[in-house]
Every structure is written in structure tokens, then in C-alpha cells.
Amino acid sequence: MKGVLRMRFQESLEAILPRLTNEQLKWYLRFFTQNLPSTKQSLVTALQPYLFDLKSMQQIWDKLLPEQRALVSYVLHKADGVYDSQLLRMRFGAAAQLSSIRVFQFYIIGRSVETPPALDMLFYPNRQNQYVIPRELAQLLLTFVPLPRKPELPSTAELPKVHEVFELSKGETAEQLDASISVTVVDTERAVFHDISATLQLIDQGKIGISNKTRQPTLATVKLLAKQLLLSDYTDADYKRAENAIRPFALVMLVQIAKWATVSTSSASKLELTKRGRALLSTQLEAEHIREIWQAWVKDNSLEPLTRISSIHGLHARGVRLTKPTQRRKVLEEILQQLPPERWVETHGFLRWVRQSGYDLNAEPENNASPIYIGDDINLGWVGYSHINYWEALIGSYILVELFEYVATLGLIEVAYTAPEEVLRPFGDSSLFEVFLNNDEPFSRYEGLFAFRITKLGRYVLGLAPTYMPPAYPTETSEPMLTVLPNLELVITNQAACTLLDTAMLERMAVAQSENVYQLQRDLVMESVTNGISLEQLMQFLLAKSAQTSFPPLIQGFFDDVERRLNALREGGRMIVFEGDRYLLAELANLSALRNIVQLATVGERSVLLVPEEHETAVRRHIKKRGYIPRKG
């Protein structure tokens, strides 16, 4: 046993103590007694009986916080007693900070002595000034310190209250805090099918503009798209810059990542649909299509998520080597697969769990080796400084971007959010951090993510459920949200129960007549069906929100008429139109290789050759063999 301990815990307390200064020895001894000898040898002699005593070690253990006990268990059983500050800070946060490091530095500049916390009594500097658990202490600790436990992801059946997450100010009550911070819950799962379809429709109309360098949407684009979406955005859509958008920005990027849209051949500042994208225009989007986008996104490296946070600088500086987004997204996908069904996960608790579980989401191959900094001044905000919480500043921020911008936009999680300025994550161990951000702006637009829970769509996309069944609207059990009148009017009778998504659904099928009164419109209903909301979903929404099992005859007749009109015409396959000399077109139409593929037709006074899109390549090849090449114009 002693041989094994000597190999694992190479530093001996008998060798370490004589190397410490008198002031350092006094600092450690003060934990046990205020009777402090003056000479080094007498200090060593006074300290050794305490440190070699099992009862003393148990007393130290009893004074540790739960997070500190987890840290000691990990270092003792998994790290051979070595205190790796960067690794432990990423895994255990503020609980990993040793006061001895700070105090010993203070001696140099004449600061006063303080009593060491219990955690510091287990770690001592070796010859390389690295802190370790000495061999003698390890031998005692191993007799009662348990193996590290796998952290449990905290979750609740109901959405947490604000006071259960945020700290109360002095004199503030839980009720006052809950009332002061507004939390909005949005059902992203119901919105995603409509919103992706609406994005494709605008692209097909040539209305989605992008930067010809970054392929990111323009300011005019995100403003226009936000107006067309069922769920416009999580923040005010009156954007000053295109990058301020979250959902509209994500949707434009996602359809490109999925290869449903690409740069227009006629303009590098516009998007056009690919063949795959055009095919989706004439079909109802299903869960399989969301999974297709998700899988493409996990493999995509086109945009570094941290660049979406304007408070983080130096990402493109010389010497910066970031891990590929796809490397981190594969880990994030594994993390999301651990989410419990039908339970809320508070964001700060989630980040702590991710950190303590040791998932490798490092933004850099070697942390703190590059000139990345927070705020406006690298001299204050370099992420390698001890007063900066590297994990929260970079890795935690990365997670929030991905969750809020992409995972939520795709409907995999339902989100509850507040204004980002209401939240202050523990970015640093010093109040300096708040100062060098230099203004009252939030660290990022993603800070407001308060809590989330995985949806049925999320479980299907992540491979946790074999099939997908869209969630039914729960029938109102108390006062119904609205009343459906035979004259096609929809009257909101319970404004308190009307959510943002409820209002958006009403606006997709009815026109506002006055406050809380809407009139069903056939054209709006048909347009909504085109944009991804099925007629059945619209009807289920009205029945559930009005606490009815069936419609009045006139309302049912309205929807029957809409369904008849929707089914009256079918869109066939798309055709490529070749124009030219009518005799040449007739000759081509009668070629044996093309006779059963193309169709000679007349449009107005023009003779044209109609070519099914799926046969375009073969037809062009045969025409080229005859010595002709169709040109645009």
C-alpha cells in the first residue's frame, strides 16, 4: 500500500513543510490554534501532529462545502492529489479557488494575514509551486473520502420561480423578486414548422438578402423575416444591426447549412432555393425534415458561435486556435440526450452540471494560451487571468448561444427567458469583471435564457424516441381563452391566458377587428397552411382554446370550404422552359431519346419545349449531341 501511495502521491509533507516560510507555516497553523511559535522548526513541529491525525482530517472534511468535497474526492481519487487550477476551475467553478494562492501573494505586497479555509488545509505547494495533497494526508483521507459521484442534472416538474434561481437583495422578499423580473415561456416546437416554411417562401420570392462575404442575413432581411414568423424573436425585433437578431438570423443560416438554399446565381447578395428546397415548398414539413437540418448543423463549421457575442474579443487574433464547432456540437448533442422528458432545467444549474460532469467543450485546444479577452481592454479582461472564470466566460457562453439560437429555434427545447440584463453569471471572482465591461449592457443577448425543457420533437430528433407525434393543444379547464362565434369572430375572453404564440396563431388565421376581437379570413388560413401550419392544427387550436369539442355549423362550413379549395388544385413537378425556333423545338421534341420526356407547347404566341426538372441534365446532354447549348437570356 505504501509503495502504491508513493507512486500516486509523490510529495511528502515532511519534505514540503520545511520549505515553507515562517509566515506560510503560521497561516496553516492558525487553522488549529492561535498559539504560534516564532521559529521555523518549532512551527513545523507544532503543525505536524495536527496534519498527521485522522481526527483532524475528518474535522477538516466536515467543514467543507458539498462542492468542495466533490473537488477533494476528484483530486484524491482521479488526479493523484495534484491541484490543476485550470481543470478544476472549469469543472467546479468558484469552489475550486484556493485562498492560499491569493494569501501567499498578498504577503509580498504587505497584506494582512487571514485564517485559512478548510479546503486550503489539504493542499500544499511543492518545489514547482504546484499545489498537491501530500502523501501522508492522502493516506488518511483515502480511509473515509468516497469515490467521486456522477453529478445529477437538477430538474423540476414545474417552471422554477425567479426567487428559486436568483439571489434576494437585502430586505427583498421572494414575492417582490418574482414580481420584478418577468419570465416569458414560448412553445418553439409549434412554431418551427411554420417558420422554416416562411423562410423558404421568402427565399423563393427573392426577398432574403445576405452578405456576399459571410452569407449572414442583412438588417432588412431579419426585420422582414421576423414579421413573417409565427414566433418572431425572443427580444424586440426593432433591430439596430442584423446580428442583434436570434431566430431570424438562425433560420437563414440553418436553411443554408441544410443545403435547402444557396447563393443566387444571379446575385451574390441574395439566396435562392436549391432543388431540395424547392421540393419542400410543395410539401408539409415533418419531424424528419427538422432532424435533417439538425444533423447537417452538427456537422457544420461555417460559423464560430462565439463570434455571436460582441463582448468577446480576439477570436481572430494571431495565435488563436479554436476547436471546430462540429467537435463541440457532437458533445453538446450527447449532453442534450441526458435531458429528462417533461421536466424543466434551470440554465445556471444546467451549466454547473455540464461543468462538473467533465464534458469536453473546450473552445481552445489549450485553455488560456491565446489573446482572447472580455470587454474593451485585454489588460483587464484576458481570459487567462485568475479573476476571470474561463469556463463561464467562454464555454458557458458557447452553450448559451447554441441553445438559444439553434436548439430552441429548431424546436428541440421549449424555453423560458427574461431580459438579458436581469442575469449576471459568475464570470469572475473579482468585481473587476463588472467594471471592465464598462457599461450597463448585458454580456450577451443570450444571457436571458432562464430555463428550458426538451420537447417531443427534441426527443425524436436526438434519437430518444422512435416516432414523433405533434403535441395536442391542452383543452382549457378553467376559463377559456377565447370564444368562437358563428359570425366567424374570435373573441379573447381571458387575456391573462393568451400567450405570445396564441396571439401569433390568431393573427395567422384572422384579422383584428378591435381590441381582443378577430375575424376569420380564408386567405390568411390558406397562406398559413402554405407556410407550414396544417388546417387540422388551426382547428385544434381554436377548439382547445375555446374549450369546445366541435364548431358551430357556420364555422365548420368555413373550414370545410377552405379544405375543399386547398385540395382542388395540385402542384405538379416543375418544368424547365426552352424557347427558340419552333421548327428546331419540334425536331427536338420528336427525337426518339426525348419523345417520351419533353413536351412541345405554346405559351401565348411563343413555341416552347417543356422539360421536367428531374430530366433536365439528360435532355441537355442529348441537345448538346445535336450541336446546341441552351443559354439563359
Give a summary of the structure in a few sentences.
The protein is an alpha+beta fold. It is 41% helix and 10% strand.
Structure explained in plain terms:
The chain is an alpha+beta fold and 633 residues long. It is built from 27 helices and 17 strands. The chain has a 4-stranded antiparallel beta sheet. Strands 11-12-14-13 form a 4-stranded antiparallel beta sheet. A 3-stranded antiparallel beta sheet has the order 15-17-16, with helices on one face. A hairpin with a 2-residue loop joins strand 16 and strand 17. Helix 3 (22-29) packs parallel to helix 4. The termini are far apart. The model is unreliable at 105-113 and 429-433 (pLDDT under 50).
Estimated structural class: alpha+beta
Strand order of the largest sheet: 3-9-10-7
Low-confidence stretches: 105-113, 429-433
The gross shape turns out to be: elongated
User: In this structure, how is the largest beta sheet organized?
Assistant: 4 strands, antiparallel
Number of E-type strands: 17
* Average of per-residue pLDDT values: 86
Radius of gyration: 32 Å
Classify the oligomer.
Answer: single chain
| SS summary, helix count | 27
Terminus-to-terminus distance? 86 Å
What share of residues is helical? 40-55%
